[in-house]
Write a structure and sequence with these properties.
Number of strands: 11
Oligomer: single chain
Shape: elongated
Strand content: 25-35%
Order of helices and strands: EHHEEHEHHEEEHEEHHEEH
Largest sheet: 8 strands, antiparallel, barrel
Strand order of the largest sheet: 1-3-2-11-5-9-8-4
Structural class: alpha+beta
Distance between the termini: 36 Å
Length: about 270
C-alpha cells in the first residue's frame, strides 16, 4: 500500500480505555511488567514533540483508566500505530471507552495581510502606514502568522504541560442558530472575539484544535494543555460568554487526564 497522506496537516487520534481488572488480576506473574516494557518500547519509538508520536495519559475522574493521543502523517501509519498500541496489552484487558479521529487543519479565519495591516494601524505602539517602522512591524507579524499556521498543521506539544483535557464539539445547525447560514464576515468577526478571549490565557493554556467533519461524530476535537486545572475551568467558562459559544456551540463530554510516561502510569 502506498502511504495515504493529507494534502496538508497530519492525522490525530484520541483514545481512552478502561482496564478489565478481573482479567488483569488473572494475568500470569510478571506479565504486567512485560506489558509496561512493550508500551515503553513503543512510546520510545515515537517520543515527539513532532509526528509520528504516541502520548500516554492517565485519565482522572473515573470515565476511563488510561488514554493515548496518536499523531501520524499518514492514515495507514496511524492505523498501524493504533494496532501496535493495543497489541502491547493481553487480549480482553483493554476496554475501549472513547476514540476520536481528526486531522490538523487551518481555520477559514487565518489573518490575511490586509487583516494584519488593519491591526497594526490601530494597535499600540501605532506606526504611520507605509513608514519603515510600519513595514518592519508588518514583516514581523507576517512571520508570526506563518509560524502559527505551520504549527497549527504540525503541532509540537511540549512535555512540560502536565494536564491534558479534550472534548469534541460542533457548531449548531438548528432554527435561527445555524452557524452555517451566517456569511463569512459574520463568522470571522465572531471567531475573532473568541480568539481574543483565548489569548488572555497565553502561557497558562496551550491548545490544539483538530477538524473531524465527515470523519467522526462531531466537527472538531479541542485539546487543552495546562499546568493547573483551574485554568482549564477558567478558559472554558469565559468562552461560554462569547456569542460564538453561547449561541452556536455544542459540546460533547470532557475528559481530564494527567500526562504520564508508561513507568509512571504503572
Amino acid at each position: 500500500m502506498n502511504p495515504i497522506a493529507l494534502s496538508q496537516g497530519i492525522h490525530v487520534e484520541h483514545l481512552l480505555y478502561s482496564i478489565d481488572r478481573i482479567r488483569w488480576a488473572g494475568l500470569p506473574a510478571g506479565e504486567s511488567d512485560q506489558v509496561r516494557l512493550r508500551l515503553e518500547s513503543l512510546a520510545a519509538r515515537f517520543p515527539g514533540p513532532a509526528h509520528p508520536r504516541l502520548m500516554t495519559l492517565a485519565n482522572v475522574g473515573g470515565k476511563a483508566d488510561i488514554g493515548f493521543i496518536l499523531f501520524h502523517a499518514t492514515l495507514d501509519g496511524l492505523s498501524t500505530l493504533h494496532r501496535d498500541l493495543e497489541a502491547c496489552f493481553p487480549p480482553g484487558t483493554l476496554v475501549p471507552v472513547f476514540s476520536y479521529l481528526s486531522v490538523t487543519e487551518l481555520p477559514e479565519y487565518v489573518p490575511t495581510e490586509d487583516d494584519l495591516r488593519r491591526y497594526l494601524e490601530t494597535a499600540e505602539p501605532r506606526h504611520t502606514p507605509d513608514s519603515p517602522e510600519f513595514e518592519q512591524a508588518l514583516e514581523a507579524a507576517k512571520k508570526r502568522n506563518e509560524s502559527q499556521k505551520f504549527y497549527r498543521l504540525n503541532p509540537e506539544l511540549q512535555d512540560d504541560w502536565s494536564i491534558v483535557c479534550f472534548y469534541p464539539m460542533s457548531k449548531k445547525r438548528s432554527g435561527g442558530d445555524n452557524w452555517y447560514m451566517l456569511d463569512f464576515a459574520a463568522r470571522k468577526a465572531l471567531m475573532g472575539t473568541h480568539a481574543r478571549t483565548g489569548r488572555k490565557y497565553a502561557g497558562k493554556i496551550s491548545q490544539l484544535i483538530t477538524g473531524s467533519t465527515g470523519l467522526d461524530n462531531w466537527e472538531w476535537c479541542v485539546t487543552l494543555l495546562a499546568h493547573r486545572l483551574d485554568d482549564v475551568k477558567g478558559i472554558v467558562y469565559e468562552m461560554r460568554f462569547d456569542e460564538v459559544t453561547a449561541r452556536y456551540g455544542d459540546f460533547g463530554p470532557f475528559y481530564v487526564n494527567l500526562r504520564l510516561q508508561p513507568t509512571a502510569l504503572w
